[in-house]
Amino acid sequence: MTNDYRFEFRPYQRRFLRSLTTNHGKWDIREGIILRLTDESGKVGWGEIAPISWFGSETLEQALDFCCQLSGEITEETIFSISDELPACQFGFESAWEMGSEGGGGDEGDEGDEGDNFITPNSCTDAINRVSTPNSSLLYSGLLPAGKAALNQWETLWQKGYRTFKWKIGVDAIADELEIFESLIHTLPAFTKLRLDANGGLTYEEANLWLWTCDNLKTNPELALEIEFIEQPLPVEQFQQMLKLSTSYETAIALDESVATLGQLAACHQQGWRGIFVIKPGIVGSPSRLRKFCHQYQIDAVFSSVFETAIARLAALKLAAELSQNNRAIGFGIDHFFE
Predict the structure, then answer these.
(1) Is 106 a residue whose pLDDT tops 90?
(2) So which residues are the catalytic ones?
(3) Among the CATH numbers 2.80.10.50, 3.40.50.2000, 3.20.20.120, 3.20.20.70, which is that of 140-337?
(4) Which of 47, 70, 187, 276 is within CB 3.0–4.6 Å of 35 for a Cys-Cys bond?
């Protein structure tokens, strides 16, 4: 694409089939912004801004303000100089630029849309269909609902081909969750991988108990199930405690909220984290800078969804296919949360 682009955008809302419950609370509606860039020759690139402010990105209102300030035009220089305080905007605009540069978004005349109706479900679908699907060898992790509902949900996901699951903890009383966990690990088929995601909701004592419990599973010859890691057991500000825990148990720890953005990712690596990094491309920031970081440090990364639409999902999966190092399942098994 050339240096100057016409820029159009449209906010969207998608309601979850059921509330997504984490330690951060209940989430009922996914809101975001679909972008379209058109260069001087008519080539189109699609992008998406899908912020999660409580996870570390800008708010939707900040993203909308940024889009409105552009007055329908943007340059390549502006795209690559978006503030680090707007990481979801960085991802959305840069991935739209990449799609257009690769010629994947089609030409303006192909869309058949006019005026304010330029972004329709059909035009978005057409744009996605024009771009080749990323590496099909990627493995997917299916997200289970919190609490007892996981005991009923896993089988449906298993029948769809999932062999890695993530279950939210730190939502209910730890005694209740440990009881459900005991049932879950004896219900899941052999050679399943299970991830436990606390979203920073455990105390130091609770994190020790979970890690001790998971370590003990390794000595049980009757269980052929693997606890792959515990994700973000403690709040972001307790990084040093998580670093200590990571060397005290066999069960791995993955950072998530602690590495929500590129700045946080670099800071945790600089402070000595050499464990697993959960990267959410939709809010981490610039794709080009993420590539540079991952290539330079060869980190152990798990790529994960932010409940984006197919537009941002495509860009995120392309990054995952390019940058995943250890054949870990990617956290994009979330379609069952929407219609």
Answers:
(1) no
(2) 168, 280
(3) 3.20.20.120
(4) 47
